Amino acid sequence: MQVYLIEDEPLTLVDTGVRSAASRIALESALDELGYGLSDLRRIVLTHAHRDHMGLVETIRSVSPDLECWVHEADAAVVEDYGQAIRDRIEQLSSLFLEHGVPTAVVDGLHADRLAGLAVDEAEGEATRVTRRLRDGDAVAGKRIGLRVHHAPGHTPGHVLLEDEASGVLLTGDLVMGQAMPHAETCYLDEMAMPGDPARRRPRFRGLVEMRRSLRRLRGRPFGVLLPGYGGVLRRADRAIRDTLLYYDVRIQRIERGLRHLAAMGQDVTVYELWKSLFPPDEAPGPMRSHLLLLIGALDCLEEDGAVVTERREDGVLTHHHR
Ligand SMILES: [Zn+2]
Predict the structure, then answer these.
(1) 3-class SS of residue 122
(2) Distance between Cα 247 and ligand 1 center (Å)
(3) Mean pLDDT, residues 72-98
(4) CA of 226: how far to CAs of 62, 95, 241, 249, 268, in Å?
(5) pLDDT value of residue 198
(6) 133 near 120, Cβ under 8 Å?
(7) Which of 178, 152, 177 lies closest to 163 in space, CA to CA?
(8) Residue range 44-57: mean pLDDT, rounded
């Protein structure tokens, strides 16, 4: 995990690491090498509301009471209500999988497995007060350095990038990383049906569609260096951006082929049927959950591209076919 210090007034940290003794010690010793302590920090800017990025905000605030905490407005609610927000997302996941044809017993197994992991979320993350809700185009200004906020949703709804236009440096959070690929979040936005959607779906944050759009917007921009949340310093910026896009393009194409193959047998298929045709039947709950979410995200992208039509069956389950 990489966090970044902006040596300026106010002394600003971008992301914090998880809430743990080891993470606090690592941060303290890194600051110490530069001649600072935790209590010198005046402002935290979060690239997004994941525990590894926000876990230490309260710890830092306990020694720096006037600490500012800035995060994009679309992620602020998760930061301020962390434990409940994670629980809500876990419950939503079950509705999402049921709606995509996963049998109840399988959904129950996935749910139980995810609940077992909740203890880690709650240990390593902590709700904290947000003092400023950022929007696209805002500035993170100091006396000497000014960063531009770019809203780049996908990994989370409120993920931001921070650009130092003077030096061509872009802090990419978890949107572009070294030696790792970001996952895209998907979550329901509220209880109302989407107006005009024949399948009457609940509005949903379509993370992979959003992430693809955020990455495409970065292509060809003249960044000198990318500073990610993981994986070192990325000096070949455009390549790292294109590699991330390519990683998903390849998977979306593979899923499209799978859908075509099943469609050739005259079927409208569910996400669960696609999963059965593309992934091993004995998958552990973790990978299965990721793959189901990847399938849902890929179908969102294919629908966005006009390649796939989604309909709702009489039993309420969503089915898909290739155009
Ligand atoms: Zn993240």
Answers:
(1) helix
(2) 17
(3) 96
(4) 31, 37, 9, 22, 43
(5) 77
(6) no
(7) 152
(8) 98
pLDDT in tens, 220-255: 899 999 999 999 999 999 999 999 999 999 999 999
Cα separation, 191 vs 144, in Å, equals: 45
Q: Tell me how far the alpha carbon of residue 178 lies from the centroid of ligand 1, in angstroms.
A: 14
| Residues 19 and 126: beta-carbon distance below 8 Å | yes
Residue 150 φ then ψ, to 5°: -115, 120
Model confidence pLDDT, tens digit, residues 182-211: 999 999 887 566 667 877 888 899 999 999
Domain 4-259 fold: Metallo-beta-lactamase; Chain A (3.60.15)
What is the predicted pLDDT for the residue at 265?
A: 75
For the chain, the straight-line distance linking the first and the last C-alpha, in angstroms and rounded, comes to 43
Q: Does the structure show a pLDDT above 70 at 303?
A: yes
Q: Record the tokens describing residue 134, joined without a space.
A: 């950022």
157 CA → ligand 1 middle, Å: 11
* pTM for the structure as a whole: 0.95
Span from the CA of 4 to the centroid of ligand 1 (angstroms): 15
CA-to-CA dists, residue 213 to 32, 79, 113, 244, angstroms? 39, 24, 32, 12
Q: Determine how β-strand 139-141 pairs with β-strand 146-151.
A: antiparallel
Burial label for 145, CB within 10 Å (0-12, 13-18, 19+), is: middle
- Gap from CA of 155 to ligand 1 centroid (Å): 6
Q: Domain extents for the chain? A: 4-259
CB 131 within 8 A of CB 70: yes
**At 313, which amino acid appears?**
R
Q: Does pLDDT of 78 surpass 80?
A: yes
